[in-house]
C-alpha cells in the first residue's frame, strides 16, 4: 500500500520539520526559542532549497507568528508554527482567537519551563498554562511519534467535523533533541493522507466577515459550539490515529501496559518510556496519554478501574490548586466514575530536573509496598525531593 | 488621476446601517478609501471603533472579505494573508488580493507598532491605513501616543503634557516606498493616494486624520470643517513620501490661527485657559516645527501643481 517508508536518523525537532515538509505546508511563521528553534531552522533550509514550496515568514515575535498563521490559515492555506515556554506565553491571547475562529493551525511545542527563574529545559509548565485555550493537545513520546503526530494533526485539524487548531507537544531536549531512527511516509503518501479539503475562506468573490463583535448571547452560543466541537473531536482523533497508514496497528489515544497490575502510573510525554521500561520489569501498569485535550476519559478509565493505587506524574506545578493539572483531571475522572482509588500526585522533572531510573524505581517499589500493606492514602510530593517522600 | 466622483473605480464596500456615531471621521475616510482601492480586495482590521461599529454579529457592514484578529496584530495577520495568497497562487490553489489594513492610532502608534514595524521590514505588499482620531475612542477616550499636547482625554484630565509621536517618520525610516498623509476633507487627494499606494510592490502607509465628534466633543456636522482646519492651520500637513522623496501636497502659505481649529473642540477647553498659555505655546511650536521640517525635506517654497485638489 505504501509507496515508501524510509528510515532516517533524526531528532524530534527534525522529525517534525520533515513531517511539515511532507504535509506540503504553505506558510511557516516562527520566532526562535530554545528548544524549538531547530524545527524552523530546518524548515527554512527546506524552503530555501526548494524542497518545500512555502512562504517562510520570519516574524518579529511569537505573537506575530501565530497572527501570521491565523491570517494565512483563513485564506485556505496550510500553516505551521512552533514555539516553547515564553513564546507560548506570549501567544496566549492569540491561542484563544485561533480556536475561536476555528482555524486548523498546527503548532509544535517543544515543552519548556517558564521564567522566573529563567530555565531553558523541559517541563510542561508552558502547555499547562495554555491548557484551556481550546486546542487539541497531542503528546509525542519520541521522534517517531513527533513525525507521525504532526501529520495526524493536520488530518484532524482540517477535518470538517473539527476545524480546530492542534498542538503537537514534545518534551524539550529529551524528545526535541534526541536522535532516533524515524520512518517517514514520504511526500506522496503523506499527501494522499492529507487531501486538501475546501473550507470557508477570505476571497473577494464570496466575502465573509471573520472576527466580528458578538453579543453575550451569541458569544455564549459560539463558545458552547466550540467546546462541543473539541469534545467530539475525540472520535476523529481516534479514527485518524487508528487509520494512520504507516503503522498497521495504528495509534491509541491512551497507550497502556500491564493494566492488571495493582499500581498504575499515568502521565504525559517522554518520561513515560522510562516508566514503561520499569513497569514491564516490575509488573507495574503504565498509561501514557498521547491525547490530553480533549481528555480521553473513556479510553483511560478501563486501565484505572482495577488499580489499587494510581500514581499521576505532573511535569508542571499549579500553585495554590488542590492538585497539579493532570492529577486534578485524574481525580475528577475517578470521582465521576464513583471510584475512590488513592492517588499519589507526583510532581517531577521541573525545569529539566532529571528523572533518573533509580528515582523512578524507588517510587514504584514504595508504591508496590504500600499496596501490599494496604495503606491507601492520597498524597502529594516531588520526585527527587527526599524531604516529603513517603 | 481621479478628479470626478464618477471616476471612482469601485463600489461601496461598507453598507448603510452600521453603528458608527453621526459624523464619524473614520467611517467617512474608510468609505472613501474603499471606493478607490483596486479589487480583488481583503480588509484586515485591528480592534477599535471601526471594527466594533461595523460587525455587530449577526450583521456585518462589510461587503468585502474582512478579518479582525486582535488589537495589536493587524499588520501580522495581514502579513499572513499576503504570504499565503502568494504561495497559493503559485500552487494554483488561490490568487493574490490587494490588502488594506485599518487600525486606529492606538493600533498603530502604540500597541500595534511592533507588528507594523515587522510587516514593513519584511516588505509585505499591503496598504496600512491608520485612522487617527488622536485617542483610544473605543474604550472611552483615553490618551494615546497620537494625542496632541494640551488635549483632554479620560487619562489626561489636565491636558496631555507630552508631544504627539511622529509616526510618519518612524514608518518612513523603515524604507517604505510610499507613505502619505490624508484627510477626508480633500477626498481627491485621499483617493489618488490610495490608488498610488497600490502601484508599489511592497508595503505602503497612509496616515489619515479622522475627527471624532464623541471624543473631541464636537458637533457631528463639523467633521469635514475640522479636517479642513487641521490642514489649513498646518496642524496636519498633507504630504507624501515616494521612494524617500518628500512632497507637500497642499501648500498652506498663510496658515489660519491654530485657535480657530482648537476652539471648536471642547477637548481643548482647558488648554485655551490663560493659565495654560505655556502648553498652548508648546503645541503651536510643534506645529510650526513640523511644517518647517517638511518644507526643508520637500524643498518646496510655494504651491505645487496639486492645487486642483481643492474642489
Ligand atoms: C491587548 C489589548 N489591550 C487592550 C484592549 C482594549 N482596547 C480595545 S480597542 C482599544 C483602543 C482602540 O484605540 P484606537 O486604536 O485609537 O482606535 P479607536 O477606538 O480610536 O477607533 C483598547 C485599548 C484590547 N482589545 N486588547
From TrEMBL, chain A:
Secreted listed as a keyword:
no
* Keyword annotations: Oxidoreductase, Pyruvate
Q: What is its EC number?
A: 1.2.7.1
Instruction: Read off the Gene3D superfamilies from this record.
Output: 3.40.50.920, 3.40.50.970
* Domain named Pyruvate flavodoxin/ferredoxin oxidoreductase pyrimidine binding: residues: 18-241
**Does this UniProt record's set of keywords contain S-adenosyl-L-methionine?**
no
Record-annotated Pyruvate:ferredoxin oxidoreductase core domain positions: 264-357
Q: Which domain of life is it from?
A: Archaea
**GO terms, molecular function:** pyruvate synthase activity
Q: What class of enzyme is it?
A: oxidoreductase
What is an annotated GO biological process for this record, any one? response to oxidative stress
The record's PANTHER family line, in alphabetical order, gives: 2-OXOACID OXIDOREDUCTASE (FERREDOXIN), PYRUVATE-FLAVODOXIN OXIDOREDUCTASE-RELATED
**Under what name is this protein listed?**
Pyruvate ferredoxin oxidoreductase, alpha subunit
State the species of origin.
Caldiarchaeum subterraneum
UniProtKB/TrEMBL annotation, chain B:
| Domain (Thiamine pyrophosphate enzyme TPP-binding): residue spans on this chain | 47-208
Oxidoreductase: is it a keyword of this entry? yes
Class in the EC hierarchy, top level: oxidoreductase
Gene3D superfamilies noted in UniProt: 3.40.50.970
Show the CDD domains listed in the entry: TPP_PFOR_porB_like
Give the EC number(s) under which this enzyme is classified: 1.2.7.1
Q: Which UniProt keywords apply?
A: Oxidoreductase, Pyruvate
Q: What is this protein called?
A: Pyruvate ferredoxin oxidoreductase, beta subunit
User: Which species expresses this protein natively?
Assistant: Caldiarchaeum subterraneum
Amino acid at each position: 500500500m505504501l509507496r515508501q517508508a524510509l528510515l532516517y536518523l533524526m531528532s524530534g525537532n527534525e522529525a517534525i520539520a520533515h513531517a511539515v515538509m511532507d504535509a506540503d505546508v504553505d506558510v511557516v511563521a516562527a520566532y526562535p526559542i530554545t528548544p524549538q528553534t531547530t524545527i524552523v531552522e530546518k524548515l527554512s533550509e527546506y524552503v530555501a532549497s526548494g524542497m518545500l514550496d512555502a512562504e517562510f515568514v520570519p516574524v518579529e515575535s511569537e505573537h506575530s507568528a501565530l497572527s501570521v498563521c491565523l491570517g494565512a490559515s483563513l485564506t485556505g492555506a496550510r500553516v505551521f508554527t512552533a514555539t516553547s515556554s515564553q513564546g507560548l506565553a506570549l501567544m496566549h491571547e492569540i491561542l484563544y482567537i485561533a480556536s475561536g475562529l476555528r482555524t486548523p493551525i498546527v503548532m509544535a511545542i517543544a515543552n519548556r519551563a517558564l521564567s522566573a527563574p529563567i530555565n531553558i529545559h523541559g517541563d510542561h509548565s508552558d502547555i499547562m498554562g495554555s491548557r484551556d485555550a481550546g486546542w487539541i493537545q497531542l503528546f509525542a513520546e519520541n521522534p517517531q511519534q513527533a513525525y507521525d503526530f504532526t501529520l495526524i494533526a493536520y488530518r484532524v485539524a482540517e477535518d470538517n467535523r473539527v476545524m480546530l487548531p492542534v498542538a503537537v507537544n514534545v518534551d524539550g531536549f529529551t524528545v526535541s533533541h534526541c536522535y532516533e531512527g524515524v520512518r517517514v511516509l514520504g511526500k506522496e503518501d503523506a499527501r494522499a493522507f492529507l487531501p486538501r479539503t475546501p473550507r470557508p475562506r477570505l476571497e473577494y468573490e464570496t466575502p465573509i466577515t471573520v472576527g466580528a463583535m458578538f453579543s453575550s448571547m451569541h458569544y455564549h452560543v459560539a463558545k458552547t459550539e466550540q467546546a462541543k466541537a473539541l469534545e467530539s473531536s475525540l472520535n476523529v482523533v481516534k479514527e485518524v490515529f487508528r487509520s494512520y497508514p504507516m503503522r498497521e496497528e495504528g495509534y491509541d489515544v491512551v497507550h497502556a501496559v500491564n493494566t492488571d497490575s495493582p499500581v498504575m502510573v499515568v502521565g504525559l510525554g517522554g518520561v513515560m518510556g522510562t516508566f514503561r521500561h520499569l513497569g514491564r520489569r516490575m509488573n507495574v501498569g503504565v498509561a501514557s496519554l498521547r491525547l490530553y485535550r480533549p481528555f480521553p476519559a473513556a479510553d483511560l478509565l478501563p486501565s484505572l478501574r482495577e488499580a489499587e493505587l494510581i500514581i499521576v506524574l505532573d511535569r508542571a506545578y499549579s500553585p495554590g490548586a488542590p492538585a497539579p493539572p493532570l492529577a486534578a483531571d485524574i481525580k475528577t475522572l475517578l470521582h465521576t466514575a464513583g471510584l475512590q482509588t488513592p492517588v499519589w500526585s507526583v510532581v517531577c522533572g521541573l525545569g529539566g530536573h532529571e528523572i533518573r531510573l533509580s528515582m523512578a524505581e524507588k517510587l514504584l517499589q514504595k508504591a508496590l509496598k504500600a499496596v501490599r500493606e494496604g495503606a491507601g492514602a492520597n498524597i502529594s510530593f516531588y520526585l527527587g525531593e527526599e524531604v516529603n517522600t513517603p | 488621476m481621479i478628479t470626478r466622483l464618477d471616476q471612482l473605480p469601485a463600489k461601496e464596500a461598507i453598507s448603510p446601517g452600521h453603528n458608527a456615531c453621526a459624523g464619524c471621521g473614520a467611517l467617512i475616510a474608510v468609505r472613501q478609501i474603499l471606493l478607490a482601492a483596486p479589487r480583488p480586495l481583503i480588509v484586515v482590521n485591528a480592534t477599535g471603533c471601526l471594527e466594533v461599529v461595523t460587525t455587530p454579529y449577526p450583521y456585518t457592514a462589510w461587503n468585502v472579505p474582512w478579518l479582525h484578529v486582535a488589537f495589536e496584530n493587524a499588520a501580522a495577520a495581514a502579513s499572513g494573508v499576503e504570504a499565503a495568497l502568494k504561495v497559493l497562487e503559485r500552487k494554483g490553489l488561490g490568487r493574490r488580493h490587494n490588502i488594506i489594513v485599518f487600525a486606529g492610532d492606538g493600533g498603530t502608534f502604540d500597541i500595534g507598532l511592533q507588528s507594523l514595524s515587522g510587516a514593513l521590514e519584511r516588505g509585505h505588499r499591503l496598504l496600512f491605513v491608520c485612522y487617527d482620531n488622536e485617542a483610544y475612542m473605543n474604550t472611552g477616550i483615553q490618551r494615546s501616543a497620537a494625542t496632541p499636547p494640551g488635549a483632554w482625554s479620560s487619562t489626561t484630565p489636565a491636558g496631555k503634557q507630552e508631544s504627539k509621536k511622529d509616526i510618519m517618520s518612524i514608518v518612513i525610516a523603515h524604507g517604505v516606498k510610499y507613505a502619505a498623509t490624508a484627510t477626508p476633507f480633500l477626498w481627491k487627494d485621499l483617493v489618488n493616494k490610495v490608488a498610488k499606494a497600490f502601484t508599489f510592490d511592497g508595503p505602503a502607509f497612509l496616515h489619515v486624520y479622522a475627527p471624532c465628534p464623541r471624543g473631541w466633543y464636537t458637533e457631528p456636522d463639523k467633521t469635514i470643517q475640522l479636517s479642513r482646519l487641521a490642514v489649513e492651520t498646518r496642524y496636519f500637513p498633507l504630504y507624501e513620501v515616494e521612494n524617500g522623496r518628500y512632497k507637500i501636497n497642499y501648500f498652506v502659505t498663510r496658515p489660519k490661527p491654530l485657535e480657530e481649529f482648537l476652539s471648536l473642540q471642547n477637548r481643548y477647553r482647558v488648554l485655551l485657559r490663560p493659565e495654560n498659555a505655556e502648553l498652548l505655546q508648546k503645541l503651536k511650536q510643534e506645529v510650526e516645527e513640523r511644517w518647517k521640517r517638511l518644507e526643508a525635506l520637500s524643498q518646496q517654497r510655494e504651491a505645487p501643481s496639486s492645487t486642483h485638489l481643492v474642489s
